[in-house]
Amino acid sequence: MALGARGWRRRSLLLLLLWVTGQAAPVLGLAVSSELQIQRSFVPDECPRTVHSGDFVRYHYVGTFLDGQKFDSSYDRDSTFNVFVGKGQLIAGMDQALVGMCVNERRFVTIPPNLAYGSEGVSGVIPPNSVLHFDVLLVDIWNSEDQVQIQTYFKPPSCPRTIQVSDFVRYHYNGTFLDGTLFDSSHNRMKTYDTYVGIGWLIPGMDKGLLGMCVGEKRIITVPPFLAYGEEGDGKDIPGQASLVFDVALLDLHNPKDTISIENKVVPENCERRSQSGDFLRYHYNGTLLDGTLFDSSYSRNHTFDTYIGQGYVIPGMDEGLLGVCIGERRRIVVPPHLGYGEEGRGSIPGSAVLVFDIHVIDFHNPSDSISITSHYKPPDCSVLSKKGDYLKYHYNASLLDGTLLDSTWNLGKTYNIVLGSGQVVLGMDMGLREMCVGEKRTVIIPPHLGYGEAGVDGEVPGSAVLVFDIELLELVSGLPEGYMFIWNGEVSPNLFEEIDRDGNGEVLLEEFSEYIHAQVATGKGKLAPGFNAEMIVKNMFTNQDRNGDGKVTAEEFKLKDQEAKHDEL
């Protein structure tokens, strides 16, 4: 009950009836009179706190007479009875009976008239000299001196940062009353609660209870009602004067003033070049949230992430975090949401999420790069240098910048043979083989725009890959002057057509032409361009002379190329 027995005598009958039927309630005491009977029907296993005089309690009750007739019940009103204990707001028996109770404890209390409504009773409700029986269930207890209670039950081994005032946090929680009744859960909504801390966006108790938490920490925060929703509750799920218990798991933490953070995991000893704005990078990464949840991985796609940096092709935090890396470097880049995907998030990335990228840089280049040549060995006699048109035989190992081997002629046991400047290799390789002497060893680094470009070679060379060739030149056959596929090594016979036309019929067929040219090459009088199919060269020469295309060359059609005598070509 809310008033002592004497208080009833001073109030009108109507007020008495309303109060009794609307608020009657039971209590339990440590030092009870011999006439007050208390039976502890249920006591919870855990009882961290008991009712003391001066505490505020919320409890349910059913009030009956000894014959079992009910005269009042809080359950009928679907509302607990809320009152201070030991301050004369209850009948004396209940003031005593509530003392020492635990939340969720149930007591049967029998109160004699002298500790209830005495010889006067309550007109029309409680007869004079009535013994009252109360079935009491304690739901909540707090004191005006209470503060927020914090119980941490898990803390990660590493806690580099804790929540401070003005930080923005993402956390999951279960919200219950002291009796364990769930009133709300972010888990049920499958969405974190996202908010600033310490600036009034939360109830005062949560503003205080979250301070000092680490990402990954789990704690129970108990908030008294005057630091929560007070006397009125929230108007929906939380009644007035309710203590609240939040079981919180912190997933994410940042401050709007944060910049990215970089932790270098592995930095190669030899770092000749670091990435700059405008470079094109190929790198692998694992992307996680601060709690370790994986949201993306280039490894799972078995393909690097390829992008320009410093030009807005990636989120601002990564644009900044990828600057200054070495090839082969591994680093961790932590990106706050305002430099990531912001309040909206993206795909599997929640809004306002801090992102953690563990990256491994495979290679990078700049579109302005040319090839790089490093000569490791030159023989003492290195006077004959390769040039366009020369026929080269060489060995090579081809790899990526991270050392991944792509191909090797040594492993195949045969040389690679090309005519320099004929388009038989990528442009960067053609450039890298120039001015090289037999026996020389060099390393040629080729950017992708001089290699296999953005497409790469399916299954062999990744797109946009920088290539490294370790080369040894084994043989060089000098080519012919540019524009020639055959030259004479001496003076050209003035009767050349007659010499070719062996049968003297005034017509030269392909067979006669081919036999004559090969004979000149065999005797050293002529030379075919090295590295090409000799029959194809001869056939093309014949076709050039067969001007009317009838399959034979006449004296009128037959002409020499107008150039130096020793380089005349048919």
Automatic annotation (TrEMBL):
Reaction catalyzed: [protein]-peptidylproline (omega=180) = [protein]-peptidylproline (omega=0)
Localization terms from the record: Endoplasmic reticulum lumen
EC number: 5.2.1.8
Domain PPIase FKBP-type: 54-142, 166-254, 278-365, 389-477
GO process annotations (BP): protein folding
Recorded GO MF terms: calcium ion binding; peptidyl-prolyl cis-trans isomerase activity
InterPro entries for this protein: EF-hand-dom_pair (IPR011992), EF_Hand_1_Ca_BS (IPR018247), EF_hand_dom (IPR002048), FKBP-like_isomerase (IPR051989), PPIase_dom_sf (IPR046357), PPIase_FKBP_dom (IPR001179)
Domain EF-hand span(s) in chain numbering: 488-523, 533-568
Cellular-component GO terms for this entry: endoplasmic reticulum lumen
Pfam family, one: FKBP_C
Signal peptide: 1-24
Top-level EC class: isomerase
Predominant subcellular localization, coarse grouping: endoplasmic reticulum
Keywords: Calcium, Endoplasmic reticulum, Glycoprotein, Isomerase, Metal-binding, Repeat, Rotamase, Signal
Matches recorded under PROSITE patterns: EF_HAND_1, EF_HAND_2, FKBP_PPIASE
Role, per record: PPIases accelerate the folding of proteins during protein synthesis.
Stated name of the protein: peptidylprolyl isomerase
Designated gene of the protein: Fkbp9
